[in-house]
Amino acid sequence: MKFGKVEDPSQIDFSLPETPKETIQFLNQYKSDEGFEINIGYPKWSKADLKGFYPRGTKDELRYYSEEFNSVEFNGTFYRSPSKEQVLIWKNRTSDDFKFCPKFTNSISHYSRLNNTVEKVAAFVDSTVLFEEKLGMGFIQMPENFRPKAFDRLEGFLNRFPKGYPLAFEVRHEEWYNDEQTLNKYLKLLKKTNTTNIIVDTPGRRDMLNFQLTTPVAFIRFVSSTDVIDKLRLSEWVTKIKEWKEAGLKQVYFFVHQKIDPETPFLSTEFVKELNEQLGCKLPIAQKKAL
């Protein structure tokens, strides 16, 4: 994810904002002693993208990945809507508790820009629901030039979207975030349509760290900066997730975007260890094993 990159991350204030009291009150409606789930992963699972991760001789990369991580931000579906047969193949190659978060195809978000997409959405949904218990949450990422002037189009799209299919949504243009009335209108629509607001933690767009949750699910896309800074950033996220869990949060999808080469360790390793320690989770701790 090149979006939001900066030349010098050391000049960025990476501190996370305080959680709005409205979010705490909203999450309190879902507060209980049971039902919390956290999913951690990366955007892709191929050897080309996770250099140095797979032991030599690994034949089924997806199977191995699913044993080391419990989720994937599945960007592969952005370029082509998958067939039902392909979805079943992916589903059957993963471990029992694994979750796919498929990205809706760019023919819906970027080319059609939500216009006349009923058939395309239906085809994507009809295929990906076959992930069944392994379907985490589908998500739509709009292009950066999709602006609030298209709000009516967005509203119609979300009102028509198939009910019951878990959906997260991301808008990028600054106008969605720098006007309080526009932002509140957008978040109100997401809440009304049971759509999760995607939180993007990337160096150059701190305005997208909006903590007004619209469902009891947090969908977070974390973009790396430097190793030293990122460890501090991720540690702060552990504290934030713990706060939200205690307030009533039910699910977390947290995806790490980082440049990976054979010498670079996974940012997620220490992050998961701290989550397990602080939240009592039992997440798998993935480490590179290739020589």
TrEMBL record:
Protein name: DUF72 domain-containing protein
Gene3D superfamilies assigned: Protein of unknown function UPF0759
Natural source organism: Sphingobacterium daejeonense
InterPro entries recorded: DUF72 (IPR002763), UPF0759_sf (IPR036520)
PANTHER family in alphabetical order: UNCHARACTERIZED PROTEIN YECE (PTHR30348), UPF0759 PROTEIN YECE (PTHR30348:SF9)
